[in-house]
Amino acid sequence: MARAWEADLSALFVKRLGKSAEELGNSQGREQCPDIWQLSNGDIAVIGRDLTDHYGSRLPEGVALGADERLVVIPGNMLIAAKPDIPDA
Known about the structure:
Layout: E1 13-16, E2 35-39, E3 44-47, E4 49-50, H1 52-55, E5 72-73, H2 76-82
């Protein structure tokens, strides 16, 4: 059965949404840098800590992770800083 959405592996990183981890005080250099990026096809890429194993068994009712999906966590201030870059629906 085909999925309703599939990631486009040819999409490129186009624009950071919000501020860099370093600007927000969430990183001390380039090695551990959570981030949010818009891709060339409009999809969003999130770089964060993979906490699938920790949260996977505690997901809310109606939420599921596919075998090829991971639950990542980013600092809250990073998403708040990205708000001006996210268009309204």
